[in-house]
Amino acid sequence: MLTKLSIDNATAEAVIAAASERATAMGVPQNIAVVDEAGHLVAFRRMDGAKFFSIEIAITKAFAAAGTRKATRDIGPATQPGQPGFGAQALVGGRFTTLPGGIPLEAGGAVVGAVGVSSGSTAQDQEVAEAAAAYFSSRWGAGAPVADSQKD
Amino acid sequence: MLTKLSIDNATAEAVIAAASERATAMGVPQNIAVVDEAGHLVAFRRMDGAKFFSIEIAITKAFAAAGTRKATRDIGPATQPGQPGFGAQALVGGRFTTLPGGIPLEAGGAVVGAVGVSSGSTAQDQEVAEAAAAYFSSRWGAGAPVADSQKD
Amino acid sequence: MLTKLSIDNATAEAVIAAASERATAMGVPQNIAVVDEAGHLVAFRRMDGAKFFSIEIAITKAFAAAGTRKATRDIGPATQPGQPGFGAQALVGGRFTTLPGGIPLEAGGAVVGAVGVSSGSTAQDQEVAEAAAAYFSSRWGAGAPVADSQKD
Amino acid sequence: MLTKLSIDNATAEAVIAAASERATAMGVPQNIAVVDEAGHLVAFRRMDGAKFFSIEIAITKAFAAAGTRKATRDIGPATQPGQPGFGAQALVGGRFTTLPGGIPLEAGGAVVGAVGVSSGSTAQDQEVAEAAAAYFSSRWGAGAPVADSQKD
């Protein structure tokens, strides 16, 4: 048997709260999704005013980041014209996105989930996802203490 | 022009909290989704231990309840063999569900959103959805005052 | 964080071998799929002569059994006409199957995966899936010793 | 009538074993799929640690290689901007992939199946697929004797 470490709901909602805080500071309402290590949705928030169109995109960014174990932005270059990954976006039922805004969440050396953000510009989405991932990393990442009192 | 009344994120998350409280009391972790009046997801929570399979089903129940403006359970009888609605479950890309657990949220005489619950038995899902809808109704429903102080 | 127990590839292939042995004894070639606790494919075998049409059905049976944490056959009654689950088969993109032949694999009190079998009659599919699940249970199930020497 | 030569399950699993051996030597767990001459899955293995996201991609690479009768990597150039095949990746429901890692398996002058590999970098996927195809070719390819004793 394999043992997998997976993000729980309380942690996912804390990540979403951190993302929302940044989005509010930026004045850009966002869709924010957190999936687990298997790509399944754990928590989602559409901030008031965020685009309905970007609901699925936020979820897909999180899914692709968990699935590739890479930030979606960092997959992009290998899919440009002339690169071996060209056209990858059509795979996995159109869920292989390279749009910035999806970042894996790592703890104990494993990808335990991912966050996806969408409704602003790709730069704004990326900024919010980075804030969320940094918050996660500071509390549950490799360098963080693992005392129970920190587990929410 | 039309003016649409639609559930906001803070209200949706309060509805999810009410649903979670009931689910916790029942000892059955649930997937809980709230969509707005247009059927678009506003907030989602997968309680720890809820089935991944039921994530999409919870969202679909909320979607169908907002879309039909009826509790999904109450659509069922008209889709039975011999009834004119027979086969309706295949419509809307398979999102016309009649499984209990989806209930519209009404305020000011309008359907402003819906809640969908899935991971337990259909009776358990229905009980949690009813608790969530009752909570919504007590605070924002037809009979409730609409003072700003009540808006979270 | 949550910790999840998940079937590994060697175990999945041993389950498939057990299923194949039974199918061979019955003289009915089968498609046999094993998914993990998250519904993702771990191993698959199409025995020579098994129907191509049933490849996806075998995978779907395993997916639905892992997802509902029930044997697909046992979900069926609640989806019959007049029952609350009527029409459920259209959900999850048509992957909510109640066809016999999908059985969850449990170890340590958790569903760690599922097996799905399809190409024969539903009774034949069920028989092979039961043989596979019984083999799994005898080696890795709740009652089995957990010595390393038994882990394949 | 047509007679079609098609890879059988035992051969497909031998090809997967050869691919796994190379992947293990490289230290990169892989998803490995073998399809038959009709593009239908014959055998699949997800090595422990391989990405769930790449399950479908491995199967798609094998499907596209069998379907085009070319290595997926070699289809890529004709789909670049300015080329007549531009945009082909959206065809066949998004299954026209040009990502390296899919290679047809030829015996007796015919494409009898294909192997697809995905979870590493495209270069790693390609290396494993080539190792698998070379193994197949050495045993069942054009230059190999076709005595029954060689058929596994």
Automatic annotation (TrEMBL), chains A, B, C, D:
SUPFAM superfamilies in alphabetical order: GlcG-like
Pfam family, one: HbpS-like
Gene3D superfamilies xref list: Haem-degrading domain (3.30.450.150)
Signal peptide from the UniProt entry: none
The name this protein goes by in its record: Heme-binding protein
Organism name: Paradevosia tibetensis
